[in-house]
Design brief:
The protein has 13 helices and ten strands. By secondary structure, it is α+β, with helices and mostly antiparallel strands. A hairpin with a 5-residue loop joins strand 6 and strand 7. Helix 4 crosses helix 12. It binds protoporphyrin IX containing FE (HEM).
Length: 527
């Protein structure tokens, strides 16, 4: 570890995997010292290269295989190491060790990202930002895979591939990149009233942050905290930047993108290098399980916030980023976050978006990181040692001793055993589930406009103007008038003045919608 650099358990573990090439001789991957790195082996001075040249072959082959697929979403990212320090105990609410003992420090790695753009795209796109935090706790990895906007576009995971296909560049010509809106995105959104709350946030200044250091983070879904007695509270997670929330204006964003598309990456890197460590307060909104139905929205609906006036955010800790990665690929690129990585004392809810996410992340990482052993990549390893009977597979690193890799067994031979709850074994909350097997949206998810209105009305006059201009800019890029018309007609349910101003600028009229408050059935004519 460099002098004056913070250190923690995770950084010490990573250190064991690091190599320094300083003052070393060049070798092949087999450790053979290389005598000439300038010329390939040829038959004669001006002759053809020989197939025998294993040094050339190894070098070129490795180079040919340097790339892995970028993330299917959130491809562009920047990350840093840091520490989470607990300032207020939640032991009353959760068994989670890292949330119980005041003063306890837990190593973290955080990756910020844009969602839609590819790896080489600009940091300043109008987009949601990812805010993914891996807590390397004593009880295993806990991932809070959060965004900088507290709600989401859709209510059910089955719509995620549609959303992403609509937002990504169009398939026939790969246009446009993340910087401007297009037919497919607004076509989909105008047919999905449930996205209206998110659209208000996305068209606001929130989606063009000044810096990653000046962004909030939200877990979005309701999760559960479970205490020693098995009592549950719904919880919403929040990160609040110590520097406050700041954005840039759209024309600033455009210019910065042209001059320095790495603006956020550079800002994060330089502030950490200069010792200006970015910090966030970590907070929770807690709702006793018995109050589940007290609200006029469903706590399981990820398009809704829990208003902070009704349930204040309690600040319980500080997240500090204090060390840049040594190697972007090994750390920021190979890290694998997953909302399903939880620890005892934290549990999921039945939010249908969250439930689908629980499948998606490992599934995508199996292909992105090349097989079932990506948990062994140094950045993904938990700080406690992994013991189980899983074995083999591509790129296996761990060498398990003994002849037994099944359980139960009577031979012994080093086989690990399940842990009781009091030994830290994870137990899912015992929750009652009943009902008919149905493929339909809960009626409690149907109000798509109240919180969109709440957000729009909470904006100051200049912020409202920015939001309006964003909609005008975006919709003016849509080539199909029917889509523009449907979208302004959706806006009328949020604010009539906003709708008519945008409509006038994009050359359409506000019309009455056939399906005002529900997603349009796939077999219906949306015109
Ligand atoms: C990344 C799926 C909703 C936050 C990803 C990735 C997938 C995915 C496949 C790429 C992971 C990788 O390659 O390692 C989904 C699905 C969703 C969903 C299926 C809904 C059904 C959300 C929501 C949030 C979110 C609601 C925020 C609360 C993130 C973040 C990343 C990510 C921050 C980037 C993680 C990183 O930095 O590596 N998502 N996502 N996603 N997702 Fe989601």
């Amino acid at each position: 570890m460099k002098d004056n650099q913070p250190t923690n358990e995770k950084l010490n573990q990573l250190e064991d995997h690091m190599t320094s090439n300083e003052n070393e001789k060049l070798t092949t991957n087999q450790g053979l010292k290389i005598n000439n790195n300038q010329d390939s082996l040829k038959a004669g001075d001006r002759g053809p290269t020989l197939l025998e040249d294993f040094i050339l072959r190894e070098k070129i082959t490795h180079f040919d295989h340097e790339r892995i697929p970028e993330r299917v979403v959130h491809a562009r990212g920047s990350g840093a190491h840091g520490v989470f320090k607990l300032t207020k105990s939640l032991a009353e609410y959760t068994r989670a060790n890292f949330l119980s003992e005041v003063g306890k420090e837990t190593p973290v790695f955080v990756r910020f990202s844009t969602v839609a753009g590819n790896r080489g795209s600009t940091d300043l796109a109008r987009d949601v930002r990812g805010f993914a935090v891996k807590f390397y706790t004593d009880e295993g990895n806990y991932d809070l895979v959060a965004n900088n906007i507290p709600v989401f576009f859709i209510q059910d995971a089955i719509k995620f591939p549609d959303l992403v296909h609509a937002v990504k560049p169009e398939p026939h010509n790969e246009i446009p990149q993340a910087q401007s809106a297009h037919d497919t995105f607004w076509d989909f959104i105008s047919l999905m009233p449930e996205s209206m709350h998110m659209i208000m946030w996305l068209m606001s200044d929130r989606s063009i942050p000044r810096s990653y250091r000046m962004m909030e983070g939200f877990g979005v879904h309701s999760f559960k905290l479970i205490n020693d007695e098995g009592k549950a509270h719904f919880v919403k997670f929040h990160f609040k930047p110590k520097l406050g929330v700041h954005s840039v204006a759209w024309d600033e964003a455009q210019r910065i993108s042209g001059v320095d598309p790495d603006f956020h990456k550079r800002d994060l890197w330089e502030s950490i290098e200069n010792g200006l460590f970015p910090e966030w307060d970590f907070g929770v909104q807690l709702i006793p399980e018995e109050d589940e139905f007290k609200y006029d929205f469903d706590l399981l609906d990820p398009t809704k916030i829990v208003p902070e006036e009704e349930v204040p955010v309690q600040l319980i800790g500080t997240l500090t980023l204090n060390k840049n990665p040594e190697n972007f690929f090994a750390e920021t690129e190979q890290i694998a976050f997953h909302p399903g990585h939880i620890v005892p004392g934290i549990d999921f809810t039945n939010d249908p978006l969250l439930q689908g996410r629980l499948f998606s992340y490992t599934d995508t990482q199996l292909i992105r990181l090349g097989g079932p052993n990506f948990h062994e990549i140094p950045i993904n390893r938990s700080v406690n040692v992994v013991h189980n009977n899983q074995r083999d597979g591509y790129m296996r690193q761990q060498i398990a001793k003994g002849k037994v890799s099944y359980e139960p067994n009577s031979i012994g031979g080093g086989c690990p055993f399940q842990a009781m709850m009091k030994e830290g074994g994870f137990v899912s909350q015992e929750a009652r589930v009943s009902g008919a097997k149905v493929r339909e949206r809960s009626k409690s998810f149907v109000d798509h406009y109240s919180q969109a209105k709440l957000f729009y009305n909470s904006q100051s006059q200049p912020e409202k103007m920015h939001l309006q201009n964003a909609l005008i800019f975006e919709l003016s890029k849509v080539t199909i008038p029917a889509i523009r018309e449907r979208m302004v007609s959706q806006l009328a349910f949020i604010n009539k003045e906003l709708a008519s101003k945008v409509a006038a600028k994009v050359g359409v009229e506000v019309k009455e919608l056939k399906f005002p408050n529900q997603s349009i059935p796939a077999d219906a004519d949306p015109s």
